[in-house]
Amino acid sequence: MSLAKQTHETYGSERLVAFTDAVMAVAITLLVLDLKLPEGIRDDELYNAVPNLSHALWCYALSFVVIGVLWMVHHNQFHSIPRVDGVMLWLNLFFLMSVALIPFVTSVLSDHATPLPTMVYAAVLMANCTMTAAMWWYASHTPGLMSPDVPAQQRRAGLITPLIVAGVFAASIGVAYWAGSSAGQWTWLLAAAAGPIGDRLSRL
Question: Where does this protein reside within or beyond the cell (predicted)?
Answer without folding.
Answer: Membrane
